[in-house]
Amino acid sequence: NKHWFEIAESEDFDSVQSSSLDTDDFLDDIKHMIDRLKAAGLKRVVVVDLTKEEIGVPVVRVIVPGLEMYGVDGDRMGRRCRNARKERVRGRRTVS
Q: Which of 45-54 are b and which e, b meaning 16 or more Cβ less than 10 Å from the residue's Cβ?
């Protein structure tokens, strides 16, 4: 994974383009994210409550089948990533 994560230059966080969904309701935030996942063609979101009452901190594990793993190498690239890569390559070839 060194190939993918080795950074030649650093960038100030403020210069990174980002967006924000500023709401006061977690449920609205969750609905927004589910809508975005659906728009990307993902059909399921699995949420498991891992909260331990004795700790008093809510914890969940969220799994979205079809999303890629964090490690990006040839052995870990999923179908969506491979297809997107092929489409980009095809797009470049047709533009030339």
A: eeeeeeeeee
Is-contact 46 62, C-beta < 8 A?
A: yes
pLDDT digits (tens, 9 = 90+) for 23-39: 888 888 888 889 999 99
The answer to whether 51 and 39 have CB atoms below 8 angstroms apart is no
Tokens of 18: 């980002």
Q: If the chain, 96 residues long, is cut into consecutive pieces of 10 residues, what is the mean pLDDT of each piece?
A: 61 75 82 91 92 91 81 66 79 49
CB 60 within 8 A of CB 49: yes
DSSP string, 26-83: HHHHHHHHHHHHHHTT----EEEE--BTTTTB--EEEE-TTPPPSS-STTT--HHHHH
